[in-house]
Amino acid sequence: MLSCAASIVLIILNLVSLALSGPLDWAKAAVELPWARADRIPLDVNLPWLPFENETRCYGEIGCLNITREWYHLIHRPFNVFPLPRNVINTRFILYTEENPTDGQLLVAEEKDTILNSNFRPDRLTKFIIHGFIDTPLSTWVSEMKTELLKYSSQNQVIVVDWGSGSLPLYTQAVANTRLVGLELAYLIKKLRDEHNLNPEDVHLIGHSLGSHLAAYAAERVPGIGRITGLDPAEPMFQSMPEFVRLDPSDAKFVDVIHTDARSLFLLEIPGYGMSQACGHLDFYPNNGKEMPGCSLSQESSALIPLTLIKDGIEEASRVLLACNHVRAIKLFTDSINGKCPYVAHRCPSYQHFVDGKCFKCNSGNCALMGYHAQMPYSYSQYNSSENDVIPSESYPPIAPVQGKYFLTTGKDPHYCQRHYRFIIELAKPVMAEKWVQGFLSAGIFTERGKNMRNLDLTPKGTQRFEHGKSYMIVITNPNDVGDKINKVELNWSHEMNVLEPRNLCIFWCNDHLYVKSVTVDMMEMPSREKRELEKSNKLCPKQQEYADIKSLGRMLFYDKCKQQQS
């Protein structure tokens, strides 16, 4: 048995971890410590936050819940409580269909007539929307997502899960309540399956924050659920916990996750509300899953708060102010449903590898679509039981995506989708060139049909050093799609002198020109079955020259068909 002093030390460590946490953040991203696992603490140790033995409570026909030592961790999940009573949480299920897109119909699992007299049809694809902490179905985003889902297909029917009375503070209690609401949701799905012929494969659970883990609790009790989409699953009390505590790939046939607020205290960042840990078949990390463009108060978002307050009310304005990154996952998913721009992401070791252009071409299952049209990493026939709920065939990849982490960049303004372009700048090394020069580089893209783009910044981090004789890659984004094959690129070069670096001064005794041999522009696109052989890589060269000599504040054009021009 541990001494009294040892017990006190453990208690103090636990209290310190709580003191370091934010309102929703219980000692984020702490390292996994063997002694912190509650199931590894001797059974005869009396610690106030651990159960003396397994505890179980039953809730009538919907089932039972237990709290065992496996649900505890001194750092990641130091407290566990049972949910509030069913009548307090008062979980409700509200159905919307093509016939009643604005006036919801209440479904009660124990009252069969509420289902029979509703517009529910088992042959439709059933989408559940599940809100998170301090949220309700009255939130603007719930209505927007519901509307987009119904707009996409008449075969979609949407059921909104209302557990607003259980999602209120304290956070630890809301976390516990998700388990009970998961039982309620599982019970309804079973009723729809057993008494109304609903196929679980046609069920898609869409959960935000705590709603992501709530969806997992429901799905683990109903075999064969088709899909769970986790929208920035909540991190506090879930990260680094066993799979049965949180969302994981075993919870449904297809689990896709969008991470947008995965900042870590452990990495000396302002803590976020979302998980950084991969927990699906496909895990998407737009903008590295941490800081979303336009969400920093030093950026434009601070100016958007008054406009949001006027347009959508204080609730949405508070979201922009306090949880902009966390709710961006919702906005990205909603925009992806009917948006014309595909959210193409690439499987990559890290976000830095992605923006450096080291993983870009969509082949061998390395690309996936983020959002509503995400495809399970198996085969086309397994994606969904209905042809009405798949992305059009021309946008399908010939090879299904591989399970893993996927990265992409999004914009700061709705719609957030961006097209990705990779520039490869191959520098020449003539005798007169300096070993390296420093400055700014921008580009313009021109196509045969006039779909042109100008002022593309190729040095977005500021002045950059270019060493002659080497090649440089960079991925940039733009909301526009050039579509056609690129036939001309313009490079603009501006040398930058830094008085703090004498070697960088270029007045009389150095050459500030940039010598470029070729420019290659790749467009990141999902391969299609109809146009698999279409070449989307464009290598361009200076006209009838071995290399382009670009003086400071000058520009030079590069043209398609390098070999013919140099022959």
UniProtKB/TrEMBL annotation:
GO terms for biological process: lipid catabolic process. This is Lipase domain-containing protein. InterPro entries: AB_hydrolase_fold, Lipase, Lipase_N, Lipase_panc, TAG_lipase. Its main location: secreted. GO terms for cellular component: extracellular space. It is found in: Secreted. PANTHER family: LIPASE, LIPASE DOMAIN-CONTAINING PROTEIN-RELATED. Residues 1-21 form the signal peptide. The keyword Disulfide bond applies. It comes from the Eukaryota. Belongs to the AB hydrolase superfamily. Lipase family. The keyword Lipid metabolism does not apply. CDD domains: Pancreat_lipase_like. GO terms for molecular function: serine hydrolase activity; triacylglycerol lipase activity. Keywords: Disulfide bond, Secreted, Signal. Residues 58-375 form the Lipase domain.
